[in-house]
Specification:
The protein is α/β, with parallel strands linked by helices. It has helices at about 1-15, 15-25, 35-45, 45-60, 105-110, 135-145, 155-165, 170-180, 195-200, 210-220, 240-255, 280-295, 305-310, 310-315, 335-340, 350-360, 380-390, and strands spanning about 65-75, 80, 90, 120-125, 150-155, 185, 225-230, 260-265, 300, 325-330, 360-365, 370-375. The structure holds ligand V47 and iron/sulfur cluster (SF4).
C-alpha cells in the first residue's frame, strides 16, 4: 500500500523521466547501475533521494535503529604512513609527540570495563613499526583470556597488510593466525577512495585498493564479518564514490561478508588538506541516501556519530541510515583531532536511546554481528529509575 502511494506521489512530483525510471527500479527491487547512481547524485533533489532511501531502509529494518555498547583502544598514533587527510598520526621520526600504549596499559583499559555490559572493543590505530603481528596476537589472546565473550573488532586492512608483510606471511596465512589469536571481525577503515586517481593523491604509500579488498575477502572466507568505509567530501568526484561502492558491491556479491557501510565525512582541521572545504549537510545526506540505494546487498548503513555530530546523526536516520554506532566512552581521538564538534565522544545508553526516540525511531541495542541485545522501544528510563528506588 505504502509502495503504491509513494509511487504515485513520485510520479506526480518528479518531472525528470530518468529519475522516474530509477524510482521504478527501486520499487521493483532492481539493482541500479553506475549511470543511475550518477544521475541520482547530480539531479536528485534531497527530498527525492530521502524518500527512496527511507523506503528501502524501512523495507529492510522498519523503524529499528541499532547501536551498541563499545569502547575503543588506540594502541598508538605513531604511523609509518603519511595520509594527507590524517590529523591524528605522528610520523615515526616524531614519535615523541605521539603515544604508544604498552600491552599492560591496553589490558588495563579492557579491565576497566569489568562488570560493565560492554559487548565490543574496537582496536584501531597508526601503523607502528615495532608493534608487530606477534605483539598483537599476544594482546588478543590476553584479552580473550580475561573476557572471552567480548567481541574484538580490530585493525584496518592497512594495519593488517603491514603486519602480515613484516611477518612474511601471505594474507591468508596472516588472517588465519590473527583470527585464531582472537580477532573476531574487521572494522572498515583504510578504504578511503579506491579509485587510483584519488588514492594516489591522498594516501599513496599504504595498502592499495586490491590489497584492501583482498584482506577483507580473506577474512570473509574464514567466516569473519567486516565493515567498509569511504572517506568522502574532499577532492573526489561523484564518479569516484560510485567506483568505490561498485568495487564493494561486487565483492559483497561474492562473499556476503560485509555487515555495514560507513561513509566517513572528511574533516579538515589539522591536516595537510585543511584548504579543502568540508561538505555541506545536504551533501552528507545525499551521500547516505545514494549509498543506501546503490548498495542493495549491504544489510546496514551506519552514521558514525562522533564524526557527524549528534543532530546530523539524527537527521541521517531519514536518509537510509539504520545504525549510529556505539557508546564509545570517549575512547577515540581520530575525529576530535580532525575537527569534529564531538571533542569528547561518549554517550550513555540512555542518551543514545533518547536521541533515536526523538526522531520517532525504535532504538535496538545490538552486538557487533547485529544480534539483538535489547529492544528499547518501550523502555521508560524514568519509570525504571523509580522502580529501582521503590525496590
Ligand atoms: O580510514 C582519518 C578516517 C578512518 C580523517 O568499522 C578521517 O565500525 C574524516 O575506519 N576526516 C578510521 N575521516 C576509522 C574507521 C571507523 C570508524 C568508526 C567505525 C568503524 C567501523 C570504522 O578514519 C580512516 C579514515 O578514513 N579518517 N582522518 C579525517 N580528517
Ligand atoms: Fe596512518 Fe591511518 Fe593516519 Fe594513514 S589514516 S596516516 S594509515 S593513522
Amino acid at each position: 500500500m505504502k509502495k503504491e502511494i509513494l509511487k504515485s506521489l513520485i510520479s506526480e512530483a518528479v518531472a525528470d523521466k530518468d529519475l522516474k525510471i530509477i524510482a521504478e527500479k527501486i520499487f521493483e527491487k532492481q539493482r541500479i547501475s553506475d549511470e543511475d547512481a550518477l544521475l541520482l547524485f547530480e539531479k536528485g533533489s534531497l527530498s527525492f533521494l530521502g524518500t527512496l532511501a527511507n523506503y528501502i531502509r524501512e523495507d529492510l529494518h522498519g523503524d529499528k535503529t541499532y547501536f551498541n555498547r563499545n569502547f575503543h583502544i588506540e594502541p598508538t598514533n605513531v604511523c609509518v604512513f603519511a595520509c594527507k587527510f590524517c590529523s591524528y598520526s605522528r610520523l615515526y621520526a616524531h614519535r615523541d609527540e605521539g603515544w604508544e600504549l604498552s600491552m599492560q596499559q591496553m589490558l588495563d583499559i579492557v579491565k576497566s570495563y569489568d562488570g560493565k555490559p560492554i559487548t565490543e572493543v574496537h582496536i584501531v590505530g597508526g601503523v607502528h613499526p615495532k608493534m608487530n603481528l606477534e605483539f598483537f596476537c599476544e594482546l588478543l589472546q590476553k584479552i580473550k583470556q580475561h573476557r572471552p565473550e567480548l567481541h574484538i573488532k580490530g585493525f584496518t586492512a592497512v594495519e593488517l597488510d603491514y603486519m602480515f608483510r613484516k611477518a612474511k606471511l601471505s594474507i591468508e596465512e596472516g588472517m588465519k593466525k590473527i583470527h585464531q589469536a582472537g580477532l573476531d571481525s574487521l572494522p572498515g577503515g583504510g578504504a578511503e577512495i579506491f579509485h587510483p586517481e584519488i588514492r594516489e593523491q591522498i594516501c599513496d604509500d599504504k595498502v592499495d585498493t586490491n590489497g584492501w579488498l583482498h584482506i577483507h575477502e580473506a577474512a570473509h572466507n574464514l567466516g569473519m564479518h567486516t565493515n567498509a568505509t569511504m572517506l568522502y567530501g574532499h577532492i573526489e568526484k561523484y564518479r569516484h564514490r560510485i567506483d568505490h561502492m561498485r568495487r564493494l558491491r561486487e565483492l559483497q556479491d561474492r562473499t556476503n561478508g560485509f555487515n555495514t557501510f560507513i561513509p566517513l565525512k572528511f574533516r579538515n582541521r589539522n591536516n595537510d588538506m585543511s584548504d579543502v572545504t568540508e561538505s555541506s549537510i545536504v551533501e552528507d545526506m545525499k551521500m547516505y541516501a545514494v549509498a543506501r540505494i546503490y548498495l542493495d546487498n549491504f544489510p546496514h548503513l551506519k552514521a558514525y556519530w562522533p564524526m557527524l555530530g549528534r543532530q546530523n546523526a539524527q537527521l541521517s536516520l531519514s536518509f537510509g541510515v539504520n545504525d549510529i554506532d556505539g557508546t564509545i566512552d570517549d575512547s577515540t581521538k581520530i575525529y576530535s583531532m580532525a575537527g569534529s564538534e564531538e571533542q569528547n565522544p561518549a554517550m550513555t545508553t540512555e542518551e543514545l536511546v533518547t536521541l533515536i526516540k526523538q526522531v520517532k525511531r525504535s532504538p535496538v541495542e545490538r552486538d557487533t554481528l547485529y544480534n539483538v541485545v535489547k529492544d528499547y522501544s518501550k523502555t521508560d528510563f524514568e519509570k525504571e529509575k523509580f522502580d529501582v528506588l521503590l525496590n
